[in-house]
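Running this now, will post back.
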Amino acid sequence: MKLRAWQCLIAFLSSVGLLAILVGLTLLLRMESSTEPKLFAHPHALWIGAEDGGVFVEITKHEAPDYYVEIRHENGGMWTEGWVRYGTRDSHPLSAAAIGGYGGEELYVYTGVAITPQKQGVAQR
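Update: finished.
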């Protein structure tokens, strides 16, 4: 009788263990990856966005206070590119990590910065 009870307990615990393993594997397979997307062709491009969408931002030319920025779609295709003016020659340089978002025409840093097709000239005095 004791032997039968132990066999039932072992069978029950084995079934629970197998079920737990199957549920764990199912959850693992369904879980979405929380790592940020990467562009292998543009390793310095930084993902700005969330799981539901965003853009890649890369600063390719640094001529403070002017910076050439490339905005790319999730698949790596070019969305837009152009010059932005940020700060002064002596101020802290703009980095992609300082960019919080892109609104279709403006980069959101601390204030909106418009992208222009040409480098902006020095302000006249």
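The longest helix spans residues 2-30. More later if anyone needs it.
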